[in-house]
Design a protein that fits this description.
Number of strands: 7
CATH architecture: 2-Layer Sandwich
CATH class: Alpha Beta
Helix content: 25-40%
Number of domains: 1
CATH superfamily: Histidine kinase-like ATPase, C-terminal domain
CATH topology: Heat Shock Protein 90
Number of helices: 3
Strand order of the largest sheet: 1-3-4-6-5
Oligomer: single chain
Strand content: 25-35%
Largest sheet: 5 strands, mixed
């Protein structure tokens, strides 16, 4: 885990937590699928008025065809018993509702990196319809 000091983001803590939980679960499942020991890296940093959170795994990675569909609803590579195909779709929707983005980079056979970008709180104006609270990464203990 690599956490830099970052400004707060204006986000729903529950929604942000749901995105991170989904990304970490997917990363864990990706490294489980490898025969050799896998690793998961989490990085948080501020850049260009936004906070970026990366979840990287050394799992099997994705083909370009899978990457094109990974954020589509009901798309899964895990089979019916392990996934609904909604996790990444909903995570991207939640990120966009908070004024952010969720993107992926992947190399087949090497792993994947999901990057969540959210505007720093000082650059965001929230509407009355979307209650939000400043969220900060957990302190390093």
């Amino acid at each position: 885990v690599q956490l830099e000091e970052t400004p707060p983001v204006t986000a729903s803590p529950a929604r942000l937590g749901q995105i991170l939980l989904n990304l970490l679960q997917n990363a864990a499942q990706a490294v489980e699928a490898r025969e050799e020991r896998g690793e998961i890296f989490v990085r948080c940093r501020a850049q260009d008025g936004e906070v970026q959170i990366e979840v990287e795994d050394t799992g099997q990675g994705m083909s370009p065809e899978v990457m094109e569909r990974v954020f589509q609803p009901f798309f899964t590579t895990k089979g019916e018993s392990r996934g609904t195909g909604l996790g990444l779709y909903l995570s991207r929707q939640l990120a966009e509702e908070m004024g952010g983005t969720l993107e992926v980079r992947s190399t087949l056979g090497s792993g994947s990196t999901f990057t969540l970008r959210l505007p720093a709180a000082s650059t965001v104006t929230t509407s009355a319809d979307a209650p939000a609270a400043p969220a900060r990464p957990a302190s390093r203990a």
